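USER:
Class, as today's exercise, take the chain set out below, and explain how the chain folds.
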Amino acid sequence: MVTVRLFALLALLVASALTMSCTAENSSNDVVDLPESAQSSSEPAGGSIPTSTTPGVALSPEELAAVASAPSISLVEAKIDSIRLRVKPGNFFRYRLTQRTSSTQDSVVAVTTGTHVYHIRVKSIRPDGSVEVGMQFDSITLGLEARKVDTREVVSQSSYNSADTANFRDVRNINYSALIGEEVTVIISPQGEAIQVSDVGAIVNKIVAAFPDKNRMTPQVKSYITEQVKTSMFTTFIAQQFVPYPQGTVSAKGTWSRKQETPIGTLFTVMTDTDYKITGVKKVDNHLIATVEASVTGSMKLGAPPPDATSKLVLNRSKITGSSEAVLDVTTGMTIRKVNRLSQDVTATTSAIDMPDSRVLSQKQDIIFTVELLP
């Protein structure tokens, strides 16, 4: 089942293509060192908004419940000329992200599911408008079932629940258990992009301590694990949560576009073209609530393999299509609900290192990510 696991990893990483955004075309998600002179501010992140709203005031549970039935207003009346993060230190947001992936590879159909509950605590606002937050995973549940297409025979099945003591303490689940309860500092740009992830040392140390072959835990392998934790569990989750907001103003029609090449860890680069449009606006007390729809097309390319790789992978063909619908609080720039749908068609050739034999793999995947703000 190595092949199934390989493509499951590929699905998780590529899924962020729908929402992952860089500040400019061909830019990367490498850590950005901010100036030491940057000082914290108690003011909300910048950008003009209608005077009828109050920046930095998060939706109350009652206001959150009222969003679905709130009255609609026109885009002209809303006067939304920009969308960006406008939060204040002390703001607290709790989210649930659910994932369902259906994959068909050769003669096997695999369905993976996952639910991650995490929270974001706003620590400070920097002079450039970027936001320093503490992000922490509170619970994780995962499931995998793979069946043969013709006989429906189960060929692989597994599950994980961080609330289950046996699951949590099983060293085979350390990649998930190590995340629980560890707050990591993330710097988020005004446009909703994770531009710096730090403080993952506690998580990585837990993973390293459970590594079965200590002789293979070289500095290069530890560095690789560190980057994968930063990317796959923090940068990617921020990308799934936020709509990439425009660098400048929103057009009179409520539209903007993004074209980017996004490194996903060290393994892949996803190239996407995405169009966004505000399709509806509501008002809840002093909060403007916007619905933003998006469509994406793209492809991907492979990067260098990890230092301990025992097989080679050559990407022959890839196609990505997707859409998303997000409901967001324009007042704070925070997501209320977002559904990302992604389909990918991939053909690759895999072989063991230094071995002539190879195998051509084809896989089609349908992935749905749902992000919800919890009361």
Notes: The helical segments are 2-14, 61-65, 75-78, 165-169, 174-177, 201-209, 219-241. The first strand starts at residue 72 and ends at 73. The mean pLDDT is 82. The two ends are 40 Å apart (CA to CA).
